[in-house]
Amino acid sequence: LPRALCSITVCLLSTGSTVSELIVTGEVGQDITVPCRYSVLNRNSITSMCWGRDSCPSSKCSQPIIWTDGWRVTEQHSSRYQLRGDLQRGDVSLTIVDARESDSGTYCCRVEIRGWFNDQRTNHKVVVKKARISTASPHTYTSEQTSGPGSTRESSFTVTRTWPSVSASEAPQTAPTPCSGPSDCLDVAADLQNTSVLLAREQLPEHGLYIGVGSCAALLLILILALLLS
């Protein structure tokens, strides 16, 4: 293996075949590609290989998920496991479609090379993480209240309220101006005067009502006496 590749993998030598290991990470819902290649010099170099869900054993693949004879896929455990590379050029990278957290684990890429103990074995550790969810930051409202200067004890406190984000359509609309011309202002003034009169009438004390009733009774008695005398 080249030095650059060995810097990111753990290289082991076992009975004449090379076993390397690297880590591939991705997120849930993505298509994750686990790389694996072998050298193809000519048509006679094209060979069979397999992918398995475990570390590479001494032969074949443990829990095989896909097989190829070098020209085409011959066995496939699930349609979510695909070989999208050019097989005849030695690109046997595994693509996991719509990855799930359960897809995390060790995968073995085994390329069968002619001869005793010449197989190319690569173990890959796949880590599938949950997708990141971006949320809008909430708005924070801060108010302060302090006791008056004449009080015996001065204290202050801060109240912080968090308001959820609202869209432009949900935002409160600005109230219209009271009047846009002289005539509108006159109408508004008249409405305010009528409202003041109604409020004044509603706020009269009850004893004022009693005085009005007594005055009416006295006038009625005087009227009756005047009729009798006439």
TrEMBL record:
GO molecular function, one term: phosphatidylserine binding
Amino acid composition bias (Polar residues), ranges on this chain: 138-177
Keyword terms: Disulfide bond, Glycoprotein, Immunoglobulin domain, Membrane, Signal, Transmembrane, Transmembrane helix
Ranges of residues in domain Ig-like: 2-134
Keyword Lipid metabolism: no
SMART domains: IG
Highest rank taxon of the organism: Eukaryota
PROSITE patterns assigned: IG_LIKE
GO annotation terms (biological process): apoptotic cell clearance; cytoskeletal rearrangement involved in phagocytosis, engulfment
Membrane topology per record: Single-pass type I membrane protein
Signal peptide positions (record): 1-20
Positions of transmembrane segments: 209-229
Keyword Cell inner membrane: no
A GO-annotated cellular component: membrane
Pfam families: V-set (PF07686)
Region (Disordered): 138-180
Subcellular location: Membrane
The family this protein is said to belong to: Belongs to the immunoglobulin superfamily. TIM family.
Protein name (record): HAVR1 protein
